[in-house]
Amino acid sequence: MDSSNKQFSHTIEKMLDSIHHNGYDVIENAIPEHLIKQLYQNCLTAPDKFNSAGIGRQQSLKQDARIRTDKTFWLDSKNQEQTNYLALMDKIRLTINRYFYLGLFDYESHFAKYEIGDFYKKHLDAFKGRSNRVFTTVCYLNTPSKGGELLIYSDSSNHIIEKVIPKAGTLVVFESERFPHEVMPADDVRYSIAGWFRKNNSVSGTIDPSS
Question: CA 89, 94, 98 angle in degrees (round to 5)?
Answer without folding.
Answer: 145
